[in-house]
């Protein structure tokens, strides 16, 4: 069984690291001007985000926190709920043996 609290925080940590790497990647001159514009525009699809203003960077980090928290909750729920075994009654066990 996964720990809900630990997995959520690990998802948040991973999401925030990826977010910062993506922001830093948008500042590097590795792409053409058109590619850089697409990168900036993609970030600006987040409501209220304007490229590299301090308030927008904090807002983006808050978005990533919320999305990672929800994702972590969902993944732990899916994983842990798949491990729950149903109780087998003696009648069910006999029926399964007879069917095999």
Secondary structure: helix percent: over 70%
Largest sheet: none
Count of domains: 1
Structural class: mainly alpha
**Structural shape:** elongated
Strand content: under 5%
What is the H/E order?
Answer: HHHH
- Total helices: the number is 4
Which stretches are low in confidence, meaning pLDDT under 50 for 5 or more residues running?
none
Average predicted confidence as pLDDT? 90
First CA to last CA: what distance?
A: 31 Å
Number of strands: 0
What would you say this structure looks like, in words?
It is a single chain. Helices cover 74% and strands 0% of the residues. It is an all-alpha fold and 100 residues long. It has one domain. The model has no long low-confidence stretch (mean pLDDT 90).
